[in-house]
Amino acid sequence: MYNFRTDLASERRDIYKQASKEKGEIDGIESEKQEIDENIKVEKVIITNENGEKAIGKPKGNYITIDVKNLKIAQEDEINKASEVLSTELKKILDSHIDKQGEVLVVGLGNIYVTPDSLGPKVINEIDVTRHIINYLPQYVEEGTRMVSAIAPGVLGTTGIETVEILKGIVDNIHPKLVIVIDALASRSIERISSTVQLSDTGIVPGAGVGNTRSEISIKTLGIPVVAIGIPTVVETAVLVNDSLDLFIEKLQDEAKSNDYLNRLREEDNYEEIKEALIPKDYNLIVTPKEIDSLIENMKEIVSRGINGSL
Amino acid sequence: MYNFRTDLASERRDIYKQASKEKGEIDGIESEKQEIDENIKVEKVIITNENGEKAIGKPKGNYITIDVKNLKIAQEDEINKASEVLSTELKKILDSHIDKQGEVLVVGLGNIYVTPDSLGPKVINEIDVTRHIINYLPQYVEEGTRMVSAIAPGVLGTTGIETVEILKGIVDNIHPKLVIVIDALASRSIERISSTVQLSDTGIVPGAGVGNTRSEISIKTLGIPVVAIGIPTVVETAVLVNDSLDLFIEKLQDEAKSNDYLNRLREEDNYEEIKEALIPKDYNLIVTPKEIDSLIENMKEIVSRGINGSL
Amino acid sequence: MYNFRTDLASERRDIYKQASKEKGEIDGIESEKQEIDENIKVEKVIITNENGEKAIGKPKGNYITIDVKNLKIAQEDEINKASEVLSTELKKILDSHIDKQGEVLVVGLGNIYVTPDSLGPKVINEIDVTRHIINYLPQYVEEGTRMVSAIAPGVLGTTGIETVEILKGIVDNIHPKLVIVIDALASRSIERISSTVQLSDTGIVPGAGVGNTRSEISIKTLGIPVVAIGIPTVVETAVLVNDSLDLFIEKLQDEAKSNDYLNRLREEDNYEEIKEALIPKDYNLIVTPKEIDSLIENMKEIVSRGINGSL
Amino acid sequence: MYNFRTDLASERRDIYKQASKEKGEIDGIESEKQEIDENIKVEKVIITNENGEKAIGKPKGNYITIDVKNLKIAQEDEINKASEVLSTELKKILDSHIDKQGEVLVVGLGNIYVTPDSLGPKVINEIDVTRHIINYLPQYVEEGTRMVSAIAPGVLGTTGIETVEILKGIVDNIHPKLVIVIDALASRSIERISSTVQLSDTGIVPGAGVGNTRSEISIKTLGIPVVAIGIPTVVETAVLVNDSLDLFIEKLQDEAKSNDYLNRLREEDNYEEIKEALIPKDYNLIVTPKEIDSLIENMKEIVSRGINGSL
After folding, report:
1. How many other C-beta atoms lie within 10 A of the C-beta of residue D81?
2. Fewer CB within 10 A of the terminal residue: chain B, N end or C end?
3. B with C: how many residue pairs have Cβ under 8 Å apart?
4. What is the extent of the structural domain holding B184?
5. What residues of D are in contact with residue C120 (Cβ under 8 Å)?
6. What is the tens place of the pLDDT at every residue in A146-205?
7. Distance from D179 to chain A by nearest Cα, in Å?
């Protein structure tokens, strides 16, 4: 399979189309764009058959991308609007898998002590859990309230345990009907860092985007549907340079400085070669924007309100 | 059972002796004191039979209290010495339950966002876990290295799930041979806050000390031995006032101001009545010293180095 | 002077009245209560002459206390209402001292690393400063915008410099017309911790309430008016015990257990004697409620919105 | 002047030599390298005359660069060694400007709430200040102890006040003999982020490296010598891409894919053009490595121990 170096289905679709010189839609992939306002855009990519699966290396299902422009300076209003959009889309997905009272377990992946990786645990702290109230103080909740529980299981490097092992144990013990997983993703573009949310109903592979593939968290491993909320928070230097290089060469060519060699350079994907050039110099770090603290803070509000609004 | 309002076996033993006017040792309770240096004291209380169990309301087993004086201004040296004492005692307990390679799961209870309750999760971040390295990169560890994993499961109010439910699921899935649980305790005396460690091999009931009894974490519920490392971090105002009142009346009597009524006041336990007097005024808060941040920071070092040294 | 052990003028007035058996108003002290809603109460104490000054040991001026009940579980609405009340009262005080465009320097006292002492620096981070924009990018602000700057100077133990020395230097260099100081206070009652705001136009003495008197921050030392926003965040154990003792004895007497000795105990102030009884046992700590993290977080919102709204 | 896009004198010297095709030393610039061990390297660059000043755009004086390899996984030992190196070099500089008892003010620039910018304030919290003890409790310090004070003045965006205005006020009020300033720098190479310390005795211009030039902090503005401890913590995407591009083209040429056009591309500095290509796409962010939290934590230890050891 092609190395997309992004977990976002919409970016993969674009890369596939460019690489395969497809002009129209790809067989097995449907998509639809929507502009909520000048700052918020929603794009849905649906993979409908095996051809679509193969094309972009993602399982059949729904992938919804919500982009929030200028999140680092977003105000209360914009954050609220973005969380409502997330809430609406999430509700649709939940309703297609479980009934209104179906118990949900919300899982926040990541490491609270590593800022770009701390979104998941921070969201968990804001989730309105009801499971213990329904169990011990049912008189304090309206009848028909959905059971919600939440957990931040930590990361393999800190726990020594695969996340899916932890979750499997908990799911088998408390029997929720669906799991929502919040996860940091890799994206191709640094301007998407912590300003894009991808919602999908196909589960996830933790760390897939940044090279450390680990066991999948999905209906296959947990036995119940897994809805993933993925947010790009880091980008690999080689990816950044590769894409910047394209922008740079494009600019050189616009200025009529083009030549055959540059043309070829641009058409090829130079990621592997750039990576090889950078690694000996310790240059191929995973990077994050300087403003990552406030980006994570704002994204935490969007995701936690979005989830609370939908449950 | 008497309401001891402390989770420390040595404090309970003292209270029982005072209340029952016992002069010598209680049948079923053995104890032994040791002074490591002018700042560190160790006391072992062993409950050997049912009479001892009944007397102080704790199951048969070993209870080791390590007191570190002036922890809030402790320097590197003192912290190291305290962690070595903990390490030595913990190693003895581990060796009496599992062999040198027996897999251990370390569990840090508490809420990272509530300073006096954040010790457990903070210690987990410092534990040298080996389970994933032994599983995936065995060439990087010496043969015979013990498998260690670690988890901070969160608190009922945030997760909606009983801690024991989470742990039961994980233990059944990854099969450690022993669990070490780090927990915040209630103590009778505010000067013990975050400067005492109690080590026991009988498991724990989360939150037992402060009135919100929840399911026990022990060999009964998990099926494997549970070693508990408990650290007092909070005290209830009514307890504080009750004990302060004793000190105050004692002083009045020393000054020959005594009278029958005061005498009786002091001999009685006035906790319930003080509590009743304070509650209508919203006075019976759980309190913690102003310096709790640095106390927790220093205690984190002692406990994490103590555990790492023993494993 | 009587040792009030509280920085709140309204508490001092009550203590003075009780001690002096005054029934009506004290000469030189006027006061007025207002109930905003069931959770928010406002009380104004005005010291009008030297007799009032002497009675409660505070300089002539206005002292406004805003009490917010149940702040630790306060929702967005309640926080907004409280900040509006603060805003309105603060605006009145500002208008009586400087004109609409008079430059203001906001100062947040305290130590960011000590949770109960971190309110000041946390508020500073939320203040809408305009001074640099007016100086460098005047086209981005409306004409007539007030110059606002803000600083968190740290504490003597960390800086080695008296706060007033730092502020004097800055004030002499940038020439604001008025200073607003946010400071942690001592209160008599633990239920007031981080749920009361005292506004005054007489400046402050940092740390006055808890025994470590340091140089005053006021028009005398800075040469411009100093408005103080004080929030109780800690309480001394001896104070807590003394007041709890009164509640306890009152309860004993209600139950007809009274006797002369108890009567006298209650009428006297036993603070000094309780303190003497507690100190040898390391019992006289400064304490704070277990929930101090979320109390500070909510109070930060109230104070920062209150200030921003008034400027 | 050439746009070096780095604050490190040693990087500027290299860039100048490459650009000017100088082989030997530049007139007015002396330098000397030293390898402390396999992980720590020290390089001294001394600018001795105006020609040197012009060549690399830095004032006459001493610039000492300490590089610590693999800081993000550095252990206690390595951190200690690095702090000793810093301490030794800093002591030499201090001794050349003030006597053993000359009062020092340590200033930590930066914003505690922005991880890559939080080093300065974090170091300040660890400085052993003595000024207040010498002033109020002289019996507790040895005679001849140097007066040390410390302050974290915040950043222009939060305070609205130029840092130099704040410092000028304090220096004029408390009269130290020398200022040590800790500052975040821009570097050319991402692998230097938070693993290099530059020591200089020529003061600094806050934010100079990343384009937002503000008033200088130096003997000119404060009237006393200013020693700067600068640590690169961020890098601009255009710089990263420009330098990565060189590495990439070099690799292409090694593989005999060279051609005239690439040759020229490499020899030229393409920063401005890359920047122009990236800006319209919101691509020219300031970035920092994913591991910035632990890098800052380790660097805090090195710098604070280094300063404390020298004072």
Report:
1. 17
2. N
3. 134
4. 9-234+291-310
5. none
6. 999 999 999 999 999 999 999 999 999 999 999 999 998 877 777 788 789 999 999 986
7. 28
